Amino acid sequence: MTLELDRRHLLGAAAAMAGGAALPAFAAGGKAPDRFVRREGMRLMLGDRPYRFAGTNMWYAAWLGADAVYGDRARLGRELDRLAAMGVTNLRICASGEEGPLKGSIKPGFRGPGPHYNQTLLAGLDYALAEMGKRGLRAVLHLTNFWEWSGGMMTYLSYVNGGRYIDAHDPAHPWPAFANFNAQFYGNAKAVALYHAYVRSLVGRVNTVTGTRYADDGTIVAWQLANEPRPAGDLDHADLPRFYAWIDGTARLIKSIDSDHLVCTGSEGLKGCLEQESIVLAEHRFASIDYLTCHIWPNNWDWVKQTDLPGTFARGEELTDDYIARHVSMARQLGKPLVIEEFGYPRDGGSNDPKVATTYKDRFYRRIYDAALDDMRAGGPIAGTNFWAWNGEARAQHADYVFHPGDRQYMGDPPHEPQGWYGVFDGDSTVRLIADHAASIARLPA
Predict the structure, then answer these.
(1) Beta strands at 43-46 and 49-50: parallel, antiparallel or unpaired
(2) Which one-letter DSSP state was computed for residue 198?
(3) Rounded CA separation 185/166 (Å)
(4) Dist CA 419 CA 411 (whole Å)
(5) What is the per-residue pLDDT across 383-394, written as a single tens digit (0 to 9) for each?
(6) Which segments constitute the Glycoside hydrolase family domain (predicted)?
(7) What is the band of 33 on the pLDDT scale with cuts at 50, 70, 90?
(8) Are 138 and 35 in contact (CB under 8 A)?
(9) Strand order in 43-46's β-sheet?
(10) What pTM, to 2 d.p., does this model score?
(11) Dihedrals φ, ψ of 33, to 5°?
C-alpha cells in the first residue's frame, strides 16, 4: 500500500497536529515563548497545550540535505512530505558523525580529529531543518553515538589515544569488549574536550539557509547528548561517577549556550543502564536533563526470534508491556516526561525485502501505540513515540542487503545493519497504522 498524498490538505492537517497548534514555520521571527517546547512537570508543553507527538527516526536527513554528490535534496523533500502527510511531527536525526577507522560507519562525517568541520554536511543539516520548519516538523538532534555506525565515542578515543580502537562485532573482541572500551570516553579529558568543542560549535551555529541561530530555532525540540550512551558493557567496567559527571556537565554546557531548548540523554533506559533502575534514575535526576527516553528492541534482546515470530511473539508482548510500565513508573518517580524514542521489529520471517509482509511488526507497533495513548489519556508522562526508522522510498542497492561504501540509498537501517531489517518503507501497511496513531494523538483533549 502506498500512501497517496494530497499535499495541501494533509500538510495543513499535519501542522495542526504539531502540539495542537497550527505553526507552519518555526525558523523565522523572534523568540516568542510558544515557539519552544518546554517541560512542566511530567508534561512537555507548547504554548498552553501539551506537546504530544507521533514521530520517527531519520538519522540521514543531513546527508540528504547536503548539496553534494552524496546528497539528494529532492528526495529529502519527498520524504518530509510523506511523513507530514502521515501526521508524523517529530524527527530524531543525527547531528554528528566522527570520521575514523571503524567498519560500518557512515562517510562522510561531520568532523575528523582536528578543529575543522565538514561545512557541506553542516549546511545539509541547515537545509534539512529549514525544510522541516516549512512543514511544521520538529527535530531532536543527537550529538554523538555510543555505537560505531556514525563514528561515535570509539572514534573520539582513537583521535587521542594513538589510534587504538575496537570494532563492534569483532570476533577477536567479543561482547562486551566494545562497550567496555567505549566507556573510557567519559573519563578521557582529551576526547571529551573534542566532543565539547563540537557541541559548542553546533549549538551556537547560525543556520546558513534561514539565518536563524540554532538556539533561537523553534524547529528544534531538544539536544540529545548521544545516541544510546551506556556507562559500560558490564558493571565491573562502569565508572558511574564519571558517567554521571559527563551527563550533567554536557547538559549544563548546552544550556549555558542555549537556555530555550530541552536536553535529554538519548538513553535506551534499563537495557542501556545494565538493567539497573538505580542507574536510570540517577542519570535522569539532574535538573539539566528535562525528560527520560527509552528504546525497545525485542529481537535484538532475544525477547523474540525473527525466524519464529509466531512462536515467540507472545513472550515479546509481555516483556514489552513490562518494559514500558517500568519506565512509566520511573518517570513518575522523577516527575518528568517520557519519550519512547526508538522501537524496532523485523518483517515476517526476518526478511529485509519490502515485498514481504509486516504482520507481527504491525502488531508490535500497535502494542506500543496503544500503551502510549492509554498513558496520555490518563495524564501520564508519555509525551511521544519515535519508531525506528523511516526508509521511505529507498531500496537496498545490493541483493545481499548490505550497505557498501559509496551507497546513496540511505535508510533508517544504518550502514552496519542489513538494509531493510527494521525500517518502514513507503509501501508498508505500517504506514497506515502510524497515520492512525498520529490522528489519535491529534484528537486528544488538552
Answers:
(1) antiparallel
(2) H
(3) 13
(4) 7
(5) 999 999 999 999
(6) 35-443
(7) low
(8) no
(9) 38-40, 43-46, 49-50
(10) 0.93
(11) -55, -35
Rounded CA separation 21/61 (Å): 25
Task: Write out the three cell numbers for 316.
Answer: 515479546
Give CA separation, 146 vs 201, 279, 432, in Å: 20, 17, 32
Per-residue pLDDT, averaged over 415-423, amounts to: 97
Give pLDDT tens digits for 327-351: 999 999 999 999 999 999 999 999 9
CA distances, 412 to each of 91, 338, 399, 403, 425 (Å): 12, 22, 18, 12, 9
What are the cell numbers at 64? 540528504
Within 13 Å and on the Cβ side, how many CA atoms surround 226? 32
The three cell numbers of residue 52 are 504530544
**Close Cβ partners of 321 (under 8 Å, ≥ 6 residues apart):** 367, 371
Half-sphere exposure of 287 (CA within 13 A, CB side): 2
Query: Is the domain defined by 7-442 classed in CATH 3.90.230.10?
Result: no
Boundaries of every domain in the chain: 7-442
Cβ-contact 341, 334 below 8 angstroms = no
Indicate the SS3 state at residue 122: helix
Within 304-406, where are the H helices?
309-334, 359-377
Q: Answer positive or negative: Cα dihedral of 24, 16, 440, 383.
A: positive
CB atoms < 10 A from the CB of 193, how many?
Answer: 11
Work out the burial of residue 248: count CB atoms within 10 Å of its CB; fewer than 13 is exposed, 13-18 middle, 19 or more buried: middle
Is 262 in a helix, a strand, or coil?
strand
Distance CA 385, CA 86 (A): 14
- Give the residue from 112, 113, 108, 61 showing the smallest Cα distance to 412: 61
H or E, element range at 73? helix 73-86
Q: Cell 494533509 identifies what position?
A: 10
- For 289, phi then psi, to 5°, come to -105, 125
The residue behind cell 573534542 is 194
Say which residues have a Cβ less than 8 Å from residue 226's Cβ, sequence separation at least 6: 142, 143, 144, 145, 146, 152, 153, 265, 266
For residue 138, the model assigns a pLDDT of: 98
Closest CA to 264 of 231, 215, 227: 227
pLDDT for 300-323, tens place per residue? Answer: 999 999 999 999 999 999 999 999
Measured between alpha carbons, how far is 407 from 337 in angstroms, rounded to an integer? 38
Q: What is the pLDDT of residue 79?
A: 98
Pairwise CA distance, residues 287 & 30, whole Å? 27
- Distance, in Å, from the CA atom of 376 to the CA atom of 366, rounded to the nearest integer, reads 15
| Average of per-residue pLDDT across 16-23 | 36
